[in-house]
Amino acid sequence: MNQYNNEKIFIIILNWNGLEDTIACIDSLQQSKYKNFKIVLIENGSNDNSANVLKIMYPEIHVIENKQNLGFCEGNNQGIEYSICNGADFVWLLNNDTIVLQDTLNLLVENAKSSPKIGMISPVIRYNDQKEKIQYGGCFIDRKRFLLNYPKKNEEFEYDYTSGENVILWGTALLIRVQVLRDIGLLNSEFFAYWEDVDICLRAIEKGYLNIVCTNAVVYHKRKLLPNKKEVPKKGMFYYLFERNYLLLVKSHSKNLIKRFKNILRGIAICSSHLKNCPQKYRYDSILGIWHGLNGNGGYPNEKKNVPKSFVFIIKIFSHIYPLFLINVLLLDIKMILIHIKKILTKEK
Asked: Exposed site from 18, 95, 209, 279, fewest CB < 10 Å?
């Protein structure tokens, strides 16, 4: 028996109208070499009878049923609380649209147990339809500016991106030591979905834990594709939550007034710069997200269209004039100014 098989792992899977994917995910988990795990399924308000089907197919899994979609954070928190109460050593947050290899969990636990400083660990995430292509192979955060940095060539696993002190892991397949959750708390439900993984990684870093990528462990992640093989476009809710939650993140991790002021300015600029790449029909959703993020409206998405017209006008104008460059000039951030000038000159060539 593997020496790490005594660690009790609870695998938390959220299902929301994704029965076919969830079945494939569970079937792949059942082929794992690591055996000391229990699956906790969060049925997050599906309308396709998923819960009853899954209970019949997998009587050994524990199912928690919600009448409505509580979001990624609150749904996973339900599973985490159940897992801790039932003696979990680790919880593994796993997207239902992933396929797990036989040795993935074994490798994750083995690496996690190599040091008590390792609080969270992720496998490499590859596209299920292009298995040679990496979707996530590590990243780190510039904690001064709240900017995520990814390797230019995602096939190369570098220390700063995979094992450095500021590594940020994705929530797609996130193994978390239960002691970390006792020290820092659960996922922040104010985020509902998106950026919650960055938030919990930052909280772990602030407590002295390391987040690492296990570069020899892999999961395959599905993506929804159109007949022409392009990804299904994001909807308005994505753009709303992405901008809102980024600003909530910036505000919550800026500990003093001066840093908060600078980071909020930079955050507004970053969110505004996204607007030009946002489909026209969803630009108001993005601006609404910026407005609600500034006003601290977290939790379940607020659909009230209460953005002042003057704010909409300012953000639209701001989005066309290199907003992040202008803010960095205002903040006298020489490093970022030089980076922007290089990008602009390269683009012009």
From this structure: 279
